[in-house]
Amino acid sequence: MDFRFDFAVDENESSEADAHFLLLCSPEHKQESREKSRGTADLAAKSSPKLAAAKHQDEAALKKNLCVKAAKEHSIPQDLNKLLENKVMETVLDLSCVKLSAVEMMCSGDADSEGIVSKSVSSHSDLIPGVYEGGLKIWECTFDLMDYFSQAEVEFTNKTVLDLGCGAGLLGIVALQGEAARVHFQDYNTTVIDEITLPNVVANCISEGRRMGSGKDRKASKPPSKRPRKAEGSPDVLNRCRFFSGEWSQVSQLLLNSKPCLKYDIILTSETIYNPDYYSALHDTLAQLLDRNGCVYLASKVHYFGVGGGIYLFEKFIEDKNMFKTRMVKTIDQGLQRCIMEITFKNSC
Question: What pTM, to 2 d.p., does this model score?
Fold first, then answer.
């Protein structure tokens, strides 16, 4: 299949593409690989028990390293023009965004220290568990959640907001435009934060008077600008932002150990429940970082074919944990069915 990083796509085409990406990570494919590995391990065990034991230890260590990525806070450069130089920008839903195809080309060389672009291209997948978690693509549920903010008139004024699994950071940028007191952005990959999230936030912060428009107005994309945007000093709004990369549990510990300990009034997250293996870490992160009277807005497809996750499976997971209450606030039926779920603590006011 073609490897694409498209912003504005037909919903049915996007749904089919998303499903195809996820099929590449199918449990059946993984099971076949596991069975081959198990057969090799059994043969090794018969010939050398010590060798087999060492092999299993190495595999366990590798699995642990893949699943736990250390947390890192990214500072905002003093020279904002340097951050935006060589960035090709376009307008998506009335927001300034780095053109992702240009990022792909730039990061195919030495600019991508994690190598996630080359690995994604070679594996023909936008999801490589423990390596790359999809942040180089804007997934369609992000658009659903942005539309819901406008339709439901979600109030961000003076709120502390976390954009969890932020990718391009569009959700957090909308919260900034809604006068949030603080907005923090988190993505699994450092490359995503440095090359996409940070530039997007800066580009929108230096655009005076830019406000969130109606859903229909925001879906008209403009041609990309061929010149980098010029920044004039660091606007006050940037002082309200912090940026983090790393696995959820690691970022949670970093935030909980900060002074003062950070809790969020609103946590925004889109298309982060495709893999059931991550549900425990996500649930723990929400439980640790959400303010007692806070609210989570989670956007997801009803089912992610091939990987097995989905909105109702995560809802059941939450019910079993018996800590949160949930409410479906919107359902979108075009293409693959999608939902927006509101999550709050059971004992909240």
Answer: 0.75
